[in-house]
Amino acid sequence: MDPVDTTDTDSPLPVPVRSRLRHLDHNVLVDTRALERVRERFDTEQARLLGRFLANAQSPATLRAYRADWTAFGAWCLTEGRTSLPADPVDVAVYLAACAQNGEGTGRPLAPSTLERRAAAIAAVHGAHGLDSPTRAEVVRMTLRGIRRTRKARPRRKAPVLLSTLEALLAVRPQDGHPGGVARRRDAVLLLTGFAGALRRSELAALTFDDLTLVKDPVDGAPTLVVSLHTTKTDQEGRKNQQVALPRGRHRATCPICALTDWTRLIELLRDHGAHALRNHLEHTPPTPPTGAHSCSGLERLTPADGTGRPLLPSVDRHGRVAERSMSPRAIGDLVKRYAQRAGLDPDDFGGHSLRAGFATQAALGGAADREIMRQGRWTNPGTVHDYIRTANPLEDNAVTRLGL
């Protein structure tokens, strides 16, 4: 893992604590002592191979969260003169209670969900080092239960992006031409694919052109885009081979495959002729009309799907330069917020999850059955979908409409 920067001069921690933090082992989910024993019994290469697989046992997002949580707990233990590994269950309970009451010196209490994740991080580190988890002790479990009962506030959900909201977000994309035309086309793919595919922001960030398959209807030739999701939040090992299908939209402006067609042509131009040709094309091509014939009718194949793992949604800077790396999940969430603000909406109400929530809500408003919504969104719990349906239409199948009031 990358080292955690603990040299912030504005940190509320005492200088000796910050100094000792630099020497913490941040490979918290890898038992370095066990790897040393592997080196003694086998060789360095086998230990390196084992370490790589152990480090990849969790998703990068989980590792980042656990590393930050473990560093915070280690800092508290150093400040209080406690032992972090192995930790005493009472110390863990006191730490969680302190965070629930005063945060970490900020005065802002941490949410119960954050504290539960911190407890999970502490348990994971102990398990990785062959130690019993202190979080299984009754004192820790009762402390977390008391925190949840005391802090009963329901988590604030992000507002769903409905179809009307989606159209408003699409309308405030950068202007066509150069350099705005690059981000304009990429962001149309992001918004429409995330909405129609009910994708999480992490799933969007992980997509490559190789994950896309174009299927033509044998009767009318209408294209359908099949998106393969190798790993997801609920299938982190990719065993289910989950897929979502995106049909051609009714209108060109909201057609996911038309957006992909326009974006693919730019990527092909950049790949084959370079940035200068891309700029020249954007500067001399008239803006794409929001109405009219679908551009996806002429899409025969996705040439960027060449086995190189080219990201579908790469980073684009303000000069229209396309990076080789994909956007991060956080950048996707920030983009949705930014467009919401441009559209005159409260950005705090929206985020990356708004696209996925919007799919379920809009589908419910359109009369889709639970089974249909669950299939596209890969939900396994009907209760989750019912929450969205109640958001969409609280009077649907509700006996209150039969009271005769």
From TrEMBL:
**Which superkingdom does the taxonomy of this entry point to?**
Bacteria
The answer on whether this UniProt entry bears the keyword Kinase reads no
Q: Has the keyword Ion transport been applied to this entry? A: no
What are the boundaries of the region Disordered?
280-325
Any idea which GO molecular function terms this record carries? DNA binding
The Gene Ontology biological process terms listed for this entry are: DNA integration; DNA recombination
Fetch the InterPro entries from UniProt. DNA_brk_join_enz (IPR011010), Integrase-like_cat_sf (IPR013762), Integrase_catalytic (IPR002104), Integrase_recombinase_N (IPR010998), Phage_Integrase-like_Recomb (IPR052925)
Give residue ranges for domain Tyr recombinase. 156-402
Among Gene3D superfamilies, the record links this protein to: 1.10.150.130, Intergrase catalytic core
Q: Which UniProt keywords apply?
A: DNA recombination, DNA-binding
Q: What is this protein called?
A: Phage integrase family protein
